Amino acid sequence: MKTSVEVHNLTVTYGSAPVLWDIDFSLPTAKIIGIIGPNGSGKTTLLKSVMGLVEPASGYVKIFDKTLEVSREKIAYVPQRESVDWDFPANVYDVVMMGRYRKNNLFRRATKADKEIVLDAIDKVGLTEFRDRQISQLSGGQQQRVFIARALAQKAEIYLMDEPFVGVDAATENSILTLLQEMRSQGKTVLIIHHDLQTVSDYFDHLVLLNTRLVAEGSPQDVLTKENLSNAYGGQLTLLSKVVQLIKEKEHPIREKDSDL
Amino acid sequence: MDTFLDFILLRDPNVWFVVIGGLFIHTSTAVVGTFAFLRKRSLLGDGIAHSLLPGVCLGFMASGEKNLIFLLGGAFLTGWTSTILVDYIVNKSKIKQDTAIAIVLSTFFGLGIVLLTIIQRGNFGNHSGLDHFLFGQAAAISRTDVYVFGVLAAIILIPIFLFFKSFSILSFNPDYAKSVGMPVRFMEMLMTSLTVLAIAAGIQALGVVLVSALVFTPAAAARFWTNKLPKMIILAALMAVISGIFGAYISYQYAGMPTGPWIVIGLFVATFFSFLFAPERGFLKRFKNRRGTSIKIRDENVLKAIFQYNEKNGGHDKLNLKLSASDFLTIREFQTNTLMKGLKSLIGQGYVNHLDDKYYLTESGKKESKRIVRLHRLWEQYLLKRTSIDTDHVHSGAEAIEHILTPEIEAELTKELGIDGVPKEDY
């Protein structure tokens, strides 16, 4: 099967402490893929590294077997809803229109086609009647859908979503899920950071279980074993976190120079 | 009066320079400031402003005269250095940004005062007026200065106009901007450079101590009036320009009055006015909304009482009973004053009629009173069904809620509870 995202031996550090440590996996296409793991396990950092928002200490990411720079327009990012100030002077349409901007069309005015794509994206997330509403006057679930609509307007192949179900009511969660399934049937790949272990096996075709290191990756049956879960969540990795803490305190290098490049 | 006419008619060429120069400077600072405001960089702007003083002094020392290009060039250099220093301190130590700004700001400002003193004591030619850079003196603008400011305004405003989309995406959501491949680092450098440049241009009129007001206050005031970024920018520029002219006029009219402080006062008045009177976001509008709500609650409670009186005294079907003021008190403990005001307002709205001292519902009043009682009781039913609440508490839990339930919510309640008409149960 074709590989959508390949993460190769990726290590990311904040200061000297590793947040992601030797992560290595390849993800299939046309699947809804969940990234799970406890708080502080590096889920957001993983998504940001795939998107090129954080610089890895070592390793690399490839999108459809090409570098991020080449595949940039095939990939769309939905940040956490809390990561922006919603009191920004813009309405729903303005924000979704941001999805149509490309590096090479910054000076171009929005075309008729752009406008249609934007209106269609707004319609798909069910916000048509709120199109002209100031974004601070939306509910949390509606704000989340604005972000998803902006990503849809990018017309990408891979969608990275950071906790799209947080602060969203059950009805919205369902409608987002239906939308994701529709996208999958069109061959799109969706990567989602998810918190709620109860719904994991219903929502996802494929899972990545993280806790600074990659604990498991594969189908939900293979990943959601008792052993894997207790490895990620149950404190079996306390030794790992102790080592991370030590590295932080001593500002110790996390590998000897050029040892395995 | 004569000076006022001289000023307003631009009879004095100096006034002309001050007004046109101000137009260039204040538009630039307000436009740059709007983006800095949205990116929450106001404090950094203040830091930059204070860091311009040593640059002005160095520029003067280098040129030996008050050559504006040298002074602004020096200011730009030290302003830029200060932002790099702040970033460096934040990245390389555990010191947080606000502390780093405070350290850099006071150090540079102190350095500036030291240099200023050296200039005043030493043999550096005619330094008179250099201290105007502390509090600003718009009247000192000459014809050449106006040209310089015009070029500066073009340098600042043209890139912002060209990169408007990118700057707005960057200000709203920097991570997203980076994710679509925008050269975020370059854009941020450009933005910082333009901000330093605009602040440097503003110090002639405002002085290093006050110039940050010219950058951020117009944006803060403009935000009250609009939810559209282009409109916000135009409004901010307009307020800055008007305040600038106001400050220039005061210092023209009253010799020795500094321009900067008066501009800041003008800006404050504009901001305070916006805070009070802006539609939607303004204080008065919000106050009015609250008042409107309390009037609505009062009227609806009176209507509800008429319905309940009918229900209690056998008039449930027709709702035709006529009530005296004391009848109302058997249903609810109204204050006489509130009750009379409510009845008067309801008569005005056509919900209630009166015959001598007795009040009764009109046809539309019957409908409206039914609607309110229904909402109240639907909400009670909903709370009883969906939450753990005792029947003797549910009435107070539903009180006040019936006044805000929208028709959409009413429809959903009807669907969920499967109740048509007004529920009989009253708690």
Report what the structure shows:
The complex is a heterodimer of chains A (261) and B (427). Chain A has 261 residues and is of the alpha/beta class. Chain A has a domain at 1-25 and 51-65 and 236-261. Chain A has helices spanning 43-50, 68-71, 92-97, 112-124, 140-153, 170-185, 197-203, 220-223, 226-233, 238-250, and strands at 3-14, 17-28, 32-36, 58-63, 75-78, 158-162, 189-193, 206-211, 213-218. In chain A, strand 8 and strand 9 (213-218) form a beta hairpin. Chain A is globular, with a radius of gyration of 19 Å. Chain A starts with a strand and ends in an 11-residue tail after the last helix. Chain B is built from 20 helices and two strands. Helix content of chain B is 74%, strand content 2%. Chain B has helices at residues 2-8, 13-38, 42-50, 52-63, 68-92, 97-121, 132-135, 143-162, 164-172, 174-179, 184-206, 211-223, 229-253, 259-277, 283-312, 325-331, 336-349, 363-386, 391-398, 407-417, and strands spanning 352-355, 358-361. Chain B has a two-stranded antiparallel sheet with strand order 1-2. At the A-B interface, strand 5 of A face helix 9 and helix 10 of B.
Strands, helices and their partners?
The complex is a heterodimer of chains A (261) and B (427).
Chain A: E1 3-14, E2 17-28, E3 32-36, H1 43-50, E4 58-63, H2 68-71, E5 75-78, H3 92-97, H4 112-124, H5 140-153, E6 158-162, H6 170-185, E7 189-193, H7 197-203, E8 206-211, E9 213-218, H8 220-223, H9 226-233, H10 238-250
Chain B: H1 2-8, H2 13-38, H3 42-50, H4 52-63, H5 68-92, H6 97-121, H7 132-135, H8 143-162, H9 164-172, H10 174-179, H11 184-206, H12 211-223, H13 229-253, H14 259-277, H15 283-312, H16 325-331, H17 336-349, E1 352-355, E2 358-361, H18 363-386, H19 391-398, H20 407-417
Antiparallel strand pairs in B: 1-2
Helix pairs in contact in B: 2-8, 2-11, 2-12, 2-13, 3-5, 3-6, 3-12, 4-5, 4-6, 5-6, 5-11, 8-11, 11-12, 12-13, 12-14, 13-14, 15-16, 15-17, 15-18, 18-19, 18-20
